[in-house]
Design a protein that fits this description.
alpha/beta; Cyclin A, domain 1; 13% strand
């Protein structure tokens, strides 16, 4: 025990000596290792870590005229907050005066408007406990605001989108649960971001947390602290599945209040561990955006399917080899068409042809199993290609990346951990190597490469594409998967309304419906198959040229005839996907396609009577991909005239609701 005390004394002495000289935040961290600071040294250490030690008295420029447009509101808030403190009356008056002076001058010097619940007062209260001159408090407050508070923490800003992507990366099941409940981070952690937890934790917890925080000098630590806050409470959150959204949000928002001072060390260390296990390029690419208040990149972050990874980080990761397996190691999944892969790829890339997902689902499932097996073997053997973290690579062109995004989405829907997507795809990778891609890309063929020969025909035959056939192990595995695709086609399953197929029947239609008996003259509608029906009309080629009705989505959803609403993606025959909403009314099936660049606006692209649906099919291997087919009975057969296809996360419920509404219509006709 004496040795521990000696060690403690040693680092405190080292810190005292360092403070007598010129030292940096790095020097402080090397000495303190994130420990809570001695009370008498805290203010000086914080000034060093926040680089305000020699900043001077900025309040000399304050004219002490308190005339903000909402000055009365500010004074009222300061008084209200301070009244909760355990200080005597005179001290409370002094604190209120200091708070009002600092915030008034800050608003005037930055041309800002004070607003209630913006976290400023909560940020200042821990600083006032340091018992230091008000000018030093101001300098610390300004530095924290500039360097540690995300300036885009509004609902539309990048900060909350990034936190969701981090949660999706590390705990996709929990993220999916919150998404299903429509609980995004902006619903529960605004106060965490804008006050560095000061609004939700007790004072000693905040002091200890900020000791660690400022020693680290890492503004992105707030994201990982917030991430740990949510992940640590996953069991509690998941147990609230039957509670209302408001109850779950309140539980999440109040979680930091349960922290105790002794928990802070482990809490912060765990956040650091998760930071090390996360790709770093997203923070390098977004740090200026997040902490400068600029909003140029909001669209790309808000629409990101998963955590983005830069080409630079991927290439450096590949170059480092197996190395330290405790950090991020990528297993690269190249999702381009086989002819593109064979015309150039990174040596460590495993090929997964994303076209198989729609064309040959069972072959795709087999390929995925091969991918996971190869990943496991690469990890076991310490291969340079091995890594726990899946990084998917597309072509960088929208026509192929529609499929790539479907593949990534399928992994996310299965709650696969550590899923990321290379920003810019193969084109960005190729351009990164500038004028010498052949030195880094295996089997690079300038005549067939989509960057070197942009007019290259993507539909060229496999025979021509084999000129660039890969000799590496992953290329061989991919080639085997491709050649076996014809042998692993899915088998056609009986209609799910067939009583003999009870496991499937129970999934879509309850046995109490007794369709086979009561409606024996009605053709079977629901099945799981390969969608091989002959379509006389197909998708209307003139559809895109038609002028469609534009509607406000939220307003439209208030229609009392709506039975159920399902967010989905419309899938066209060419592979293009559109964010949409599938709506079932008592009589119709309606689809609203969201309009890009017009938030909350959609086009009515489908409106068909439920009676026109003659068949609903789903892939056995991809049950979320649902096809509604329209046509007329022809004896014992069906003539399919048109169809609509959707990727519906909640496909089970959607097909059940449609079937129930069709049955209701049939019952009403009988009556």
């Amino acid at each position: 025990m004496a040795g521990v005390l000696d060690d403690d004394s040693d680092w405190v002495t080292d810190l005292e000596n360092a403070l007598l000289e010129e030292c940096t935040a790095t020097d402080v961290y090397c000495i303190c290792k994130g420990k809570p600071l001695p009370e008498g040294m805290r203010s000086e250490v914080w000034q060093i870590c926040l680089d305000v030690r020699d900043k001077g008295n900025q309040l000399d420029n304050f004219n002490e005229i308190f005339d903000l447009p909402n000055q009365h509101e500010l004074r009222e808030d300061c008084t209200k907050f301070v009244s909760k403190l355990d200080n005597d009356g005179e001290e409370q008056i002094s604190i209120v005066s200091d708070l009002e002076s600092i915030i008034t001058f800050y608003c005037k010097s930055r041309n800002l408007t004070y607003s209630r619940n913006n976290g400023w007062i909560e940020l200042l209260l821990p600083l006032l406990t340091l018992k230091i001159p008000i000018c030093t408090v101001y300098n610390l407050f300004e530095a924290i605001r500039d360097n540690f508070i995300p300036q885009s923490y509004q609902a539309e800003g990048n900060a909350f989108h990034i936190l969701r992507l981090l949660l999706l990366y590390h705990d996709p099941e929990l993220c999916s649960f919150l998404d299903t409940k429509r609980i995004t981070p902006d619903k529960y952690c605004v106060t965490w971001f804008q006050s560095l937890f000061a609004a939700t934790c007790n004072m000693q917890v905040i002091i200890n947390m900020w000791d660690y925080y400022f020693q680290q000098s890492d503004p992105f630590l707030i994201f990982f602290l917030s991430l740990i806050m949510v992940i640590n409470a996953r069991e509690q959150i998941m147990s609230l599945k039957d509670e209302s959204t408001s109850v779950i949000i309140e539980t999440l928002a109040n979680m930091p209040s349960a922290l105790e001072a002794d928990d802070v060390g482990d809490f912060c260390s765990l956040a650091q561990y998760y930071a090390v296990k996360t790709p770093t390029s997203f923070r390098n690419d977004l740090i200026q955006n997040i902490y400068s208040g600029k909003a140029e990149d909001n669209v790309s972050v808000s629409q990101a399917l998963c955590l983005p990874v830069s080409v630079r980080e991927l290439v450096q990761n590949v170059a480092q080899g197996a190395g330290n397996m405790d950090t991020v190691r990528f297993f690269l999944v190249d999702c381009r068409p086989v002819e593109q892969y064979n015309a150039g790829h990174l040596p460590t890339a495993f090929h997964l042809d994303c076209n198989l997902m729609l064309q040959e689902p069972s072959a795709f499932a087999t390929a995925v199993q091969g991918l996971l097996s190869a990943q496991k073997q690469a990890l076991e053997h310490g291969s340079n290609a091995g890594g726990e973290h899946l990084c998917f690579l597309g072509s960088g062109r929208n026509e192929e990346d529609q499929y790539t995004h479907m593949v990534v989405a399928s992994f996310l829907q299965k709650h696969t951990q550590y899923v990321s997507l290379l920003t810019g795809g193969y084109i960005a990778l190729h351009n990164y190597f500038n004028n010498n891609p052949s030195q880094f890309l295996l089997d690079h063929n300038p005549k067939l490469c989509i960057v070197c020969a942009p007019v290259y025909n993507l539909n060229m035959t496999d025979k021509n594409s084999k000129s660039g056939h890969s000799s590496d192990i992953f290329g061989k595995i991919s080639a085997v998967m491709k050649s076996k695709s014809a042998e692993v086609k899915e088998k056609l399953i009986d209609y799910i309304v067939n009583p003999n197929n009870s496991p499937v029947q129970e999934r879509h239609v309850s046995s109490s419906d007794k369709i086979g008996k009561r409606y024996r003259n009605v053709a079977p509608v629901f099945s799981i198959d390969d969608d091989h029906d002959y379509i006389t009309g197909g998708e209307n080629p003139k559809e895109e040229e038609e002028t469609r009705e534009l509607v406000q989505i939220q307003q439209w959803l208030k229609n009392p005839s709506i039975v159920e609403h399902f967010p989905c993606e419309e899938v066209k025959l060419n592979g293009f996907m559109y964010k949409s909403h599938l709506i079932i009314t008592t009589s119709d099936l309606v689809v609203l396609r969201e309009v890009q660049d017009q938030k909350g606006v959609a086009e009515v692209i489908v409106k068909r009577p439920l009676s026109a649906i003659v068949k609903i099919t789903a892939k056995k291997r991809h049950p979320e991909l649902i096809t509604f087919k329209y046509g007329i009975p022809d004896g014992e057969n069906l003539i399919i005239s048109d169809m609509d296809r959707f990727l519906i996360p909640n496909a089970d419920k959607a097909t059940k609701v449609v079937s129930e509404q069709i049955l209701n219509q049939l019952k009403n006709r009988e009556c």
